[in-house]
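pasting DNA-binding response regulator for the record, 224 residues
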Amino acid sequence: MRILICEDSVLLREGLVRLLEHSGHEVAAALPDTTELFTTLEHDMPDLAILDVRLPPTYSDEGIRAALRIREQYPDLPLLVLSQYVEERYASELISAYTPALGYLLKDRVADVTDFVESLEQIRTGGTILDPEVVAQLLTRSNHDNRMQRLTARERTVLAAVAEGKSNQAIAELLHLSEASVEKHITAIFQKLELEADGTGNRRVLAALAHIENQAASPQPRQD
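structre below
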């Protein structure tokens, strides 16, 4: 796998280069900032890109904004955002489309080299890898608490399809419903999870993340 790295820390950048090459991968480019990022992508497309969130010159959000631009221009390029921080606004926007081959991991929580390399390989093959802390912070921001229990069985089924990245049309075909019915179910889900449109969050991604966090608990739903 050919991998592009965009990381300002020399130590971490060179550490990633050595780690990836030792694991049998090729580093297509190792960039300190986004200055040459899109020129590099235009002339030498890698199999996967790793970007830090905070890069020069302001060390605020250059990296994750570049990730969003990559998603727009090269939607098929597998992408891993690797950061010390959860940039909530842009993280929500980046994840909201639920396009495949995407990861968001926190540097401090990447403790196992084998797991990290496996995560890259999963992303390369279309997987979505989200750090649990990223999910937790986005959900805390939505303040959903235990509101998942308010959903009916049908609403849970619709929400599960949303979490898989399916469009309203695809959900309608899957469940043999009209698109209007699907829209009504999704509106009800937003209301029950108290995910109101406020201009700063994405209700669809937060609802899907709520499903991801709660699916292990599997509380008994009400029937329609």
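The beta strands are 2-6, 26-31, 48-52, 79-83, 102-106, 128-130.
Residues 179-192 form the longest helix (14 residues).
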